[in-house]
Design brief:
Blueprint lengths: L12 E7 L24 E2 L18 E8 L7 E2 L2 E2 L4 E3 L12 H16 L7 H35 L3 H29 L3 E3 L14 H29 L3 H51 L19 H39 L5
Antiparallel strand pairs: 1-2, 1-3, 4-5, 6-7
Helix pairs in contact: 1-5, 2-3, 3-5, 4-5, 4-6, 5-6
Length: about 350
């Protein structure tokens, strides 16, 4: 029922890698392993895509398109060989939509959310609007759920790259945040839909291969962490200001606060990576950042009806305006400062390396 209804509705953009067919046929995704390809290559398709082929046809004589990265999704996408991995949404009792509990430092906020959820009255909404909101909140939960695995993979990559413990710890904490985000979203989806919802298994086979590439991990983090999660935090905070039901507002504020911390983790990792990889990596970061911003700030392609803004979803045109403001005022200045810092670090290293060891 729910599985076939999910789309990104113009707010989540997929970045694709486009290549020419070989003997008139597109190679399989496994044959075009995206190792070494920077996220941000190709063009953005703001429409629902199925599988690794943007043209949905492996035998097409047209250009061959493979998903590389995503911007503006809820959470941090789990991509395996260019294809997003999401669990199916399932009807029936599930701990994913049961009342939330949390460590002591967050318990009051989640108690407030549980109480507000109990108070949420959807009776005045038309049935078709309730169904739309249930689908959109479940879509949001589905992406947050996949983010748990994405941060697990990121933490493994940090270990493989010899990253400092503060980054490793922050990645694990971020994964726990995403568990909570998925539960918040599914609780609201269940409330709007009038029935409990949860998830089936998430396929993770092949997701933990090739973790030791500093360039691949850095450029993926530029797109999904620095850009994607900064935008997600800003958009969630803006949507919270427009929210009517208290449960929706509390959920969005929680998500916005956490996503900004996740974005800070992304910037911190890229800063460390540039310090390790030097000027060459800094140049690739600058190129990838600009491509990602151009894609995120494109005019949206809206498919389907948009839900009422007071229930947690801003119109696509407003989202685009927010992204353009964030790109100009936050992301480009931060990226330029980071890249310049990396180049300065590399120049200092070169000067030291040319000095005689013994005077």
């Amino acid at each position: 029922m729910y599985e076939d209804d999910f789309g990104y509705h113009g707010q989540c953009c997929d970045i694709t890698l486009c290549t020419a067919p070989v003997n008139g046929v597109c190679p399989g995704a496994a044959e075009v392993v995206l190792k070494g390809r920077p996220p941000g290559s190709g063009e953005c398709e703001c429409e629902p895509l199925r599988g690794p082929y943007a043209n949905e046809n492996e035998g097409s004589a047209e250009s061959c398109c493979y998903l590389v990265g995503s911007i503006g999704c809820d959470g941090r996408p789990l991509l395996v060989q260019g294809k997003p991995r999401l669990a199916d949404v399932r009807e029936g009792p599930s701990a994913w939509s049961s009342p939330l509990d949390a460590p002591a430092e967050r318990s009051q906020g989640l108690r407030d959310f549980n109480a507000a959820l109990h108070e949420l009255d959807t009776a005045d909404l038309p049935a078709e609007v309730r169904a739309l909101l249930a689908r959109r909140w479940a879509e949001r939960g589905r992406n947050e759920h996949a983010s748990v695995a994405s941060f697990a993979r990121f933490s493994m990559a940090l270990m493989a790259l010899g990253a400092p413990p503060a980054l490793v710890e922050a990645a694990h904490l971020a994964a726990l945040d995403e568990v909570r985000h998925a539960r918040l979203a599914m609780s609201l989806a269940s409330a709007y839909g009038g029935e409990p919802l949860g998830f089936g298994p998430l396929a993770v086979d092949g997701a933990f291969e090739d973790l030791g590439s500093l360039t691949a991990a850095t450029l993926a983090t530029v797109v999904e962490g620095c850009v994607g999660e900064t935008l997600a935090a800003i958009e969630a905070a803006a949507a919270a200001q427009e929210a009517g039901p208290r449960a929706v507002r509390l959920a969005l504020l929680e998500i916005a606060e956490d996503e900004m911390r996740h974005a800070e983790l992304g910037w911190a990792f890229v800063r460390w990576a540039i310090g390790t990889g030097g000027a060459a990596l800094a140049a690739e970061v600058a190129t990838t950042l600009e491509k990602a911003l151009q894609i995120a700030c494109k005019e949206p392609t809206v498919t389907g009806e948009e839900p009422p803004r007071e229930h947690g979803f801003l119109p696509a045109e407003e989202v685009t305006t927010l992204r353009r403001q964030a790109a100009a005022q936050v992301l480009r200045p931060a990226g330029e400062a980071l890249v310049e810092q990396g180049r300065g670090h590399a120049a200092r290293f070169r000067r030291r390396s040319t000095q005689p060891l013994v005077s």
